[in-house]
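Recall that a protein's primary structure is simply its ordered list of amino acids. Everything else, from secondary elements to tertiary packing, is in principle encoded there. The following example makes that idea concrete.
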Amino acid sequence: MCIFILAVLPGQPVLLTGASILVGSARGLFTLLEATVVSDHWGPEGYASLNGVFSAPLTAAMAIAPSIGAALATFAGGYPALFLILAATGAASAVLALASGPAPRPAGDRPPAVPAD
């Protein structure tokens, strides 16, 4: 949704700055989520190596994104068109993720117990 906002906003600096702050906040949220998902899912043992494996694809994508984004913007006819393509790709990914359902759990694997208050 945040990427779609960047696609349809007119080029006024104040609006683009506000939208960029919103997009940055969403990215910051994912940073915090990444920090907890590894230990919540696999436990704290080996956290550093598991987190490294988990975040390596994202880190590689962030490293090459600026050059690929510029090339795609040239191909698409500008950054608004690029952000529309990115928003459509993100929406399609979300639909596919929801349609796939939850991942199957191995036999004997239980979710962590919730402590009683």
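The chain has one domain: 2-99. The helical segments are 2-8, 13-42, 47-76, 79-100.
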